Amino acid sequence: MWNPNRLQPFSFAASASQMGRFETKWLSRPENLAALADLSGHWIDKVHQRRPPRIIVLDIDSSESPTYGEQEGSAYNGHFGCTCYHPLFVFNQLGDVERCALRPGNVHSADGWRAVLEPVIARYRGTVRRLYFRGDAAFANPEMYEFLEAEGAGYTIRLPANNVLQNRIAYLLKRPAGRPPQEVRRYFASFSYEAQSWKKPRRVVAKSLPSRRRGSSGTPPSFTRVSALS
């Protein structure tokens, strides 16, 4: 470490071994880990104190952090095809990291979602006019729906396709009669659906992109669980 004013090393700079002890002995304490987890949220709150937002859109997603050697907690992840950690992130619409958690490499994408998402939701209770949430199919579970509905948050979460959903939009999956159009056409459908694990019906929006070629089924349709977004 160098002093930019004197162009000579600090005599009191920490050595590599001291930094290692600092990370493993001090930062790993429960109270310090909790403070680190809250740190990004505190920074965001300071910005919002100067420019309060009216709308917050949260995105939750996992990622891979490849590891090398025998690092504690790392494991092979078949989806990413590497040995890694599998951290979970919550971002806002500006790309700021609201909160994150480092997890073992072999856990499910949604593992521990409540511990990461709930503190973020709690920070915005009563402070924003509208709160929205987006997630991919890994987070399509009734516990997530019920949590967001209880918080009054609008949300869109992609659903894994199944035969019941496919049959509901069978009429959209056929190639239209006549000469194929030159432009790409997308078709949408909105309907009520209740999976066996759900306690009530919920709104689902489907998108279909039929193929313009004969004999091709086109792009597989996508299904999204949508709450009231008004």
Structure description:
There is one protein chain. With 230 residues, this protein is an alpha+beta fold. It folds into 2 domains: 22-157, 2-Layer Sandwich (Nucleotidyltransferase, domain 5); 161-230, no CATH class. Helix content is 26%, strand content 29%. It is built from 5 helices and 13 strands. The chain has helices spanning 16-26, 30-50, 113-124, 142-150, 163-168, and strands spanning 2-3, 8-9, 55-62, 65-66, 75-77, 82-85, 88-92, 97-101, 130-135, 154-159, 187-193, 202-209, 219-226. The strands form 3 sheets. An 8-stranded mixed beta sheet has the order 8-7-3-9-10-13-12-11. It is globular and about 80 Å long. The mean pLDDT is 86.
- Beta-strand share of residues: 25-35%
Could you describe the largest sheet, including whether it forms a barrel? 8 strands, mixed
Distance between the termini: 54 Å
User: Under CATH, the topology of the largest domain is which?
Assistant: Nucleotidyltransferase, domain 5
The average pLDDT value, as a whole number, equals 86
Helix residue percentage: 25-40%
Order of strands across the widest beta sheet? 8-7-3-9-10-13-12-11
Structural class, from secondary structure content?
Answer: alpha+beta
Extended strand count: 13
Radius of gyration: 23 Å
CATH architectural designation of the largest domain:
2-Layer Sandwich
Inertia-based shape: globular
Number of helices: 5
Order of helices and strands: EEHHEEEEEEHEHEHEEE
Number of domains: 2
Poorly predicted regions are: none
CATH class membership of the largest domain: Alpha Beta
